[in-house]
């Protein structure tokens, strides 16, 4: 097996070359598109059975047009993320890096680049977000418990004051309870604030 075939076989995606038209008509594609997204390359090349934009999530196509158009105007490469509808019907997040190819007369010949499956990355982000929500919920429960502890400490201090000298030991305990509740509440609030910032 030659070097390129070996490397392409390990890619979670495919390479392409296409026209700069409204359908991004594919001229060449590697076979990774079938392995990852379920469509044989020869069905999409030349729009034989379907266009490339027809397998994209329809709401992402205008963004693709905008990003590619701006990059071509500036003669730069682009990188963007969008969703491709798998042949089985479910959506898969992909990242594309591409650029234009011009001839010696500055005429745009075609576009080329790579499209990589990043669905597993989005799944991990979703899982981490769910974990953070659970932690945030538990942090709120801790804050409620600490408020109750502070209330108990206040009541204990009042009872100790009523007891006079006999309640001096209880007063010390009440003061320690307030100190513990205050310091723990500050820590819990810091965790809660950090979680809110992380979630945007």
Automatic annotation (TrEMBL):
Biological-process GO terms, alphabetical: chemotaxis; signal transduction
Q: Which residues form the PAS domain?
A: 21-75
InterPro entries noted in UniProt: Chemotax_Me-accpt_rcpt, MCP_chemotaxis, MCPsignal_dom, PAS, PAS-like_dom_sf, PAS_fold_3
Q: Name one GO molecular function term.
A: transmembrane signaling receptor activity
Q: Does the keyword Hydrolase apply?
A: no
Keyword set for this entry? Chemotaxis, Plasmid, Transducer
All copies of the Methyl-accepting transducer domain together span 151-200
Q: Name one Pfam family in it.
A: MCPsignal
Would you say which domain of life the source belongs to?
Answer: Bacteria
- Gene Ontology cellular-component terms listed: membrane
The answer, when asked if Coiled coil is one of the entry's keywords, is no
Q: State the NCBIfam families in the record.
A: sensory_box
Q: Which PANTHER family match?
A: METHYL-ACCEPTING CHEMOTAXIS PROTEIN 3 (PTHR43531:SF11), PROTEIN ICFG (PTHR43531)
Q: Name the family the entry cites.
A: Belongs to the methyl-accepting chemotaxis (MCP) protein family.
Q: Which protein is depicted?
A: Chemotaxis protein
* The species this protein was found in: Rhizobium etli (strain ATCC 51251 / DSM 11541 / JCM 21823 / NBRC 15573 / CFN 42)
């Amino acid at each position: 097996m030659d070097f390129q075939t070996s490397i392409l076989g390990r890619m979670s995606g495919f390479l392409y070359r296409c026209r700069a038209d409204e359908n991004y008509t594919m001229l060449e594609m590697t076979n990774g598109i079938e392995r990852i997204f379920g469509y044989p390359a020869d069905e999409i090349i030349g729009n034989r059975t379907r266009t490339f934009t027809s397998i994209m999530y329809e709401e992402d196509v205008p963004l693709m047009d905008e990003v590619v158009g701006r990059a071509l105007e500036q003669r730069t490469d682009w990188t963007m993320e969008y969703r491709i509808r798998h042949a089985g019907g479910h959506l898969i997040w992909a990242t594309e890096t591409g650029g234009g190819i011009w001839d010696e007369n500055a005429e745009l010949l075609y576009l080329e680049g790579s499209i990589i499956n990043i669905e597993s990355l989005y799944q991990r982000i979703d899982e981490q977000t769910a974990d953070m929500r659970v932690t945030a919920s538990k942090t709120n429960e801790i804050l409620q418990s600490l408020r109750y502890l502070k209330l108990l400490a206040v009541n204990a201090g009042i009872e100790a004051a009523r007891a006079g000298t006999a309640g001096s030991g209880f007063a010390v305990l009440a003061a320690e309870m307030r100190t513990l509740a205050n310091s723990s509440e500050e820590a819990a609030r810091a965790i809660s604030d950090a979680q809110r910032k992380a979630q945007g």
